[in-house]
Amino acid sequence: MSLKLTVSVDAMGGDAGPSVVVSALVRAVRRHPNVHFMLHGDETELTRLVAKRRSKLSQHVSIRHAPRVVRMEDKPSIALRRGRDTSMWRAIEAVKNGEAQVAVSAGNTGALMAMSMYHLGVLEGISRPAIACLMPTKIGPCVFLDVGANVECKADQLVDFAIMGEAFARAVQGIERPTVGILNVGEEEVKGNSEVKEAAHVLRNAKLPMEFCGFVEGNDITEHTVDVVVTDGFTGNVAIKTAEGTAKLIAAYMRGALKRSFMSRLGAVFASGALNALRHKLNPRASNGGIFLGLDGIVVKSHGGTDAFGFSAAIDMAIDMAAGDIVKKIAADRAEMNLPGREAAAS
């Protein structure tokens, strides 16, 4: 997709620094030739890296000097108080000032969320922003949120997550009427704590462009029982990291099995096409990016340890969110929320 917009990039965030970011831009420019990229960071270093790819990037990139970097170990509160001359701060500030439509960073997640809330604020009616991700399933990715921003959640927050998740599924994934479920310890209505029960009651009575399917269990996620899975940040973070660890374990088992004997190695050669397809589906880089939802602006968090392929995927996600006008969709759906249902649940 090609759009006439500007992407503001924290070029110094992440484990590998600006070399990965600039390499990612080469990929991004090929897919989005009408998009301009505003890089924030050390001007001398960025100028040198961009110059090496001048023929591919010179017409698509501008550089804004930022002398300092938010470190991965910095506390969000400290980064917020002392980070005004950092590349992360200025990348988000460009969105606030209208110089860019989206921001992308591979830096400190807590600091990025704190700075994003400071600069962009939270949409009216949304209690707290959430971090969403795309979870691989048998029939394509599902939206999974929250995965770490809110450790404990009240019922109204879970309702907000459902609104944000279904709006994302419509805007970015093109699902006309997404199915939504709340992660629980069972599908029965009597199971779960009071917060998930109250949230389910509200969503069953909500007049939103989605189909609420009630409760789902952990094994339903990869089955793609629903398009959007809603949970608190503690549970979501544990679930996604468990899934990532399981995928790595299976990959390690497969490599060991395929190298065990001459015949198994020969079989791997004949099955190379299928194995490559499997590797692509399980590749976390292809869906890299933590999606900040609920802000009055668009911010995408790339994995800190990603490579150029993964960072370019995060850029793709940010551009798709801008194309889908995700902020307006969330605001509109929140305004249409069935408030009498929420009041009834609380009574």
Give a structural overview.
This protein has 347 residues and is of the alpha/beta class. The protein has 15 helices and eleven strands. The chain has helices at 18-31, 43-51, 54-57, 76-82, 87-96, 109-120, 155-171, 194-204, 218-221, 233-258, 262-270, 272-282, 308-323, 326-335, 339-346; strands at 6-10, 36-41, 61-65, 102-105, 130-135, 142-145, 179-183, 211-216, 228-230, 290-293, 298-301. Strands 3-2-1-4-11-10-5-6-9-7-8 form an eleven-stranded mixed β-sheet, sandwiched between helices. α8 links the parallel β7 (179-183) and β8 (211-216). It is globular. The N and C termini lie far apart (47 Å). The model is unreliable at 338-347 (pLDDT under 50).
Topology readout:
Blueprint: E1 6-10, H1 18-31, E2 36-41, H2 43-51, H3 54-57, E3 61-65, H4 76-82, H5 87-96, E4 102-105, H6 109-120, E5 130-135, E6 142-145, H7 155-171, E7 179-183, H8 194-204, E8 211-216, H9 218-221, E9 228-230, H10 233-258, H11 262-270, H12 272-282, E10 290-293, E11 298-301, H13 308-323, H14 326-335, H15 339-346
Parallel strand pairs: 1-2, 1-4, 2-3, 4-11, 6-9, 7-8, 7-9
Antiparallel strand pairs: 5-6, 5-10, 10-11
Keywords:
11 strands; 15% strand; 347 residues; alpha/beta; 11-stranded mixed beta sheet; globular; single chain
| Strand content bin | 5-15%
The class by helix and strand makeup works out as: alpha/beta
Q: Which sequence of SSEs, written as H and E, runs from N to C? A: EHEHHEHHEHEEHEHEHEHHHEEHHH
Output mean pLDDT: 87
Low-confidence stretches: 338-347
Main beta sheet:
11 strands, mixed
Estimate percent helicity.
40-55%
- Return Rg in Å: 21 Å
What is the strand arrangement across the widest sheet? 3-2-1-4-11-10-5-6-9-7-8
Number of helices: 15
Number of strands: 11
Q: How far apart lie the N and C ends? A: 47 Å
Rough outline: globular
